[in-house]
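Minutes, project check-in
Item: structure for the 376-residue chain
Input as provided by the requester:
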Amino acid sequence: MTTLIESEEHKALRAAVSSFARSHTTGDNRAFWQDAAKLGYIGVNLPEAYGGGGGGITELCLVLEEMGAAGNPLLMMIVSPAICGTVIARFGTEAQKREWLPALADGSRLMAFGITEPDAGSNSHRITTTARRDGTDWLLTGRKVFVSGVDIADATLIVGRTEDARTGKLKPCLFIVPRDTPGFERRQIDMELDAAEKQFELTLDDVRLPAEALVGDEDAGLLQLFAGLNPERIMTAAFAIGMGRHALSRAVEYARDRTVWKTPIGAHQAIAHPLAQAHIDLELARLMMQKAAHLYDAGDDIGAGEAANMAKYAAGEACVKAVDQAVHTLGGNGLTREFGLARLVTAARVARIAPVSREMILNYVSHQTLGLPKSY
């Protein structure tokens, strides 16, 4: 890559994270998280004034990509520093910033993010979790599903809706809900997904929160929400690209070494060309991811929204193809626990589904970019 695309500083960060992630083989995600935080990797995007690295989503997605390429991705990086840390840094009160940002940066605390609902998906206009005032407090009621890492998070940033006093319409708002708050219940969802981070359904039954639990301006609405959702898409792209690179590297290594009739199987174009195509697709997805991160860090929320959706789409497709081709390259060995590729077949598809489906991204691009009429 040229310095036009990636600076020498970013190349050095990429190399350092790669070396660190490849040397960490214990399988203990919590220890890996804390070790990464001590080196400044977890909070690299958070403001220096609050213990972070002073970088942006550009640096954070680079860190996650290299962790994934080393086979040690950290899913909660998408949630805790990227979504929650970004929203609090941009819109939180001074007290919220002091309480949460240093702890998120040094790895001592984590925060989960709850937006998806059983009947609304991630459609912020159909969210039914509502917050109503009770004196100076808020009462939050509703349900959330597919919330990652609630059991290891100290709090969850919940997307609810409040009534606009002027129009009577409901608008999205964000609340910090500590894990042990009365009325805040969780149930683990039984997933056929091999991941360290578990998925949960949340029930909020008149959860009483103080006024200071509200993040930012009650009237900011969608602006605050998308301040977290664009980094989520960019980081999901990084997660997918890292996973695809990891699978591809295992396949390339196998294709060089596996010999049939005195010839490495990688010498055959039927093996080599699909792997080359997978590499090209991953590199193209990375370029769009870098564009999206650059636009977001430059403050172009609208441009970043388009690019983040495209990056997430491209990376999800590239990841699935890379993993599939890696498994095919290894044949039967690709389904063994020894090579660790079979578990990625399911994991890779998450990037096509979450945090927004590829079909909804195509809707976004057709409406927002191409100006075509809506189908819904």
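Outcome recorded: Residues 222-257 form the longest helix (36 residues).
No further action items on this chain.
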